[in-house]
Amino acid sequence: MSPTAARPNLTQGSILKALLTLALPIVFGNLLQTGYQLVDAFWVGRLGASAVAAVAVSFPVNFLLIALGSGFSVAGSVLVAQNYGARNLPMVNHIAAQTLMLETGLALLLTAVAHWGSPLILRLIGVGPDIFEQANQFQRILFLGLGFNFGFLMFQALMRGVGEVRIPLYINIGTLALNFLLDPLFIYGWGPVPPFGVAGAAVATLVTQALSVVVGMVVLLRGRSGIQLTFKGFKPDFALMRRAVKLGVPSSIELSARALGLSMMTVLAAAFGTTVLATYGIGSRILALGIIPALGISLACSTLVAQNIGARNLPRAVRTANYAIAISFGGLLVVGLLGYLAAGPLVCFFLKGDEAVSQDAIEFVRIAVFSLCFTGAQQSVSGALRGSGNTLSAMMLTIIGVWVFQFTVAWYLSQHTALGFHGLWWSFVVANVLAATLALLWYLRGDWKGSDLADPLQGRANQAAQLEDKP
């Protein structure tokens, strides 16, 4: 029996068990991925508020670039999961190779453009001269790691598609531990290693990301974890690539719209000065940490919905989505309470010695954190839509939530009311509630489950096998 065929069948048995079996390792893995930023923030925070602001400026820009390429990882995960649910194992391997090629090509293009355009990006954001050089150095080094970042994101997506979520978690644990050791080495210097300051955090992240993608490729080539890559499998299959692009482009637009929204929020914050920008950087990171459980449940929901659709079991796919929405809403209520109580210690973890920024950041977190449960529900709806192949609807929900709701409210409250920059904090509450309400109404209409969404590549298993066998 092949390693792929031996994997457990998540389209049968307890839905709750299957959902949690996938979601919990994904949540821990995402926490560890966020750990890169947390570790960077921990060490950079010792350099002062200006250094924190320099890193905060680069975060939404880097997020935007990653979002542009993440659509292909979404497409890879959905196609793999649907065909794995249908037990089309040769096609699973073929999809993995083709989507990796797409992701690598896009990563190289974005790396070249972003590294060259880094100063222009910072000027467009409106970064002040007091932190411009630090932000540019940090950002340019971070951009050099886009290829590694994209590669590991695709590796995680492909593994998730076949229900293997432990190996990416183990890799994240090892590289995060290494990153924690390398950060102070490159930031402050030691022995023959000179101090790089803020840029040192980006150097440490670059090294560990490169290591993680190398390990991931070794896992895929060995073929013992659900997917078997071969070098012959990288022969271009343009029909499959078009299918992946059709699924992936709406997801890229969706994630990019979210990232651009964060960038525009950064622009609004930057207009109030470096202190508010640093406050926004710290508060938004803590909130991003808070929604990680919802993202994990959403990704698990997407995989299980896709596998069940591939297995032609639509009722089970719908029940899986219902479970995910309920668990995510309830779980984020608990996270909101914990975040409210721990706002002070969390802010102090990111910044020492600046009382004004710390107090504003605590206020920001306490205003917004209880609305995260609505984000949880909206994320699960989006996960179900992606798993069904309906990435266009997921894209529309995100665009409306970020641009119609949050940015508009943030701009109005901060610029045209007495709230001032506090209006930025309240926009999170308004947007989260409205976006969740719209997503649930969209979901309850049932349109996403009305058509035959089992992937048409299902019938090409023999073709995939023939492609693998050709010299």
UniProtKB/TrEMBL annotation:
Protein name: Multidrug-efflux transporter
Entry's Gene Ontology BP terms: monoatomic ion transport
GO cellular component: plasma membrane
A Pfam family of this chain: MatE
PANTHER family in the record: FMN_FAD EXPORTER YEEO-RELATED, MULTIDRUG RESISTANCE PROTEIN NORM-RELATED
GO MF, one annotated term: xenobiotic transmembrane transporter activity
Subcellular localization, as worded in the UniProt entry: Cell membrane
Lineage per the UniProt record: Bacteria, Pseudomonadati, Bacteroidota, Cytophagia, Cytophagales
Species: Hymenobacter properus
Topological type in the membrane: Multi-pass membrane protein
Transmembrane segments: 15-32, 52-80, 100-118, 138-157, 169-190, 196-221, 259-280, 286-309, 321-344, 392-413, 425-444
This protein's UniProt keywords: Antiport, Cell membrane, Ion transport, Membrane, Transmembrane, Transmembrane helix, Transport
The keyword Heme is annotated on this UniProt entry: no
Chief location of this protein within or outside the cell: membrane
